[in-house]
Amino acid sequence: MASNPRAGGSKKGPTKGSGGKNKRSLQGRGPTPKAEDRVYHKAHKSAAAKKASSAHQARRRKKENGPNMVAGRNSVLEALREDVPATTMYVAGRIDSDDRVREAITLATKRGISMLEASKPDLDRLTDDAIHQGIALQIPPYEYAEPRDLLAVAADRAEAPLLVALDGITDPRNLGAIVRSAAAFGGHGVIIPERRAASMTAAAWKTSAGAAARIKIAQVVNLARAIDELKKQNVFVVGLDMDGDVELPELTFSRDPVCIVVGSEGKGISRLIADKCDQVVSIPIAATTESLNAGIAAAVSLYEVARTRRG
């Protein structure tokens, strides 16, 4: 006797699916996004912060390496009076002229500086939205020398090199003051690091009172390596620090080739640079005074070396 199918069962043939084409088909979620693409993930936040930092550094490099703008009537006039190098002066078309504007135009004309009329939006863009009062002065990028160029200046004068190297000086006014002191006391040049340091901006030019046009400034990628190279040229490297081994007046080598290393007032010279110095000296000051400004410390040291050499 033939067997009967199971109770409640049904006989079905092969079926064909819709291939996911009907309206009720399930929708896949797709591949899992990368961690940096998920806004809530720390990798995304880290990538965003890195991108913002890179953009900031790019803007900073562009600002430092590109033309420097002096904005505002007083600032422009002071720069022109101090013979700060300039290529172009921008003046608003309908500027409310006063004595400062008229003198600035006169000085720019005498120096052969080109003058261009600019709209307010143009001046806003050129000065990075600084308060320009309708006038701005474009300063060309400074042409830095190499440390060997500073030694060559001393050789041409048949003098023992007297150099200043700056470690951690970030205020351009301090840089300008040190450049001025170096020129005043017979220095042959100033060495500055390329990164995390003041550069020859319009503020540095103004503070140097024109000395930056008479003395070379070298910019180096690695200050420690530059010091090593100077030592190979028999330059005695002296670091200034309030905890120095000896006091400045006790120097016995000031007639030899010398490089004075000056650090910031707050931090002084770094440990790496201090270890590179042949001698670390201090400037004797009253106990009631905690420290000296970097520009003043450099001036005192340069004067002391110059005095000893003359004696």
TrEMBL record:
Xref: Gene3D superfamilies = 3.30.1330.30, 3.40.1280.10
Q: SUPFAM superfamilies of this UniProt entry?
A: alpha/beta knot (SSF75217), L30e-like (SSF55315)
Domain spans labelled RNA 2-O ribose methyltransferase substrate binding: 69-145
User: Which GO molecular function annotations are given, in alphabetical order?
Assistant: RNA binding; RNA methyltransferase activity
Q: Spell out the GO cellular component terms annotated for this protein, sorted alphabetically and separated by semicolons.
A: cytosol
Spell out the InterPro entries in the cross-references. Answer: Alpha/beta_knot_MTases, Ribosomal_eL30-like_sf, rRNA_MeTrfase_TrmH, SpoU_MeTrfase, SpoU_subst-bd, tRNA_m1G_MTases_N
Q: Which Pfam families match?
A: SpoU_methylase, SpoU_sub_bind
User: Which GO terms are recorded in the biological process aspect for this UniProt protein?
Assistant: methylation; RNA processing
Please provide the record's keywords in A-Z order: Methyltransferase, Transferase
Region (Disordered) residue spans: 1-74
* Superkingdom of the organism of origin: Bacteria
Enzyme nomenclature, EC number: 2.1.1.185
Write down the PANTHER family for this protein, in alphabetical order.
23S RRNA (GUANOSINE-2'-O-)-METHYLTRANSFERASE RLMB
What does the similarity note say?
A: Belongs to the class IV-like SAM-binding methyltransferase superfamily. RNA methyltransferase TrmH family.
- Entry protein name: 23S rRNA (Guanosine2251-2'-O)-methyltransferase
Species, as recorded: Brevibacterium antiquum
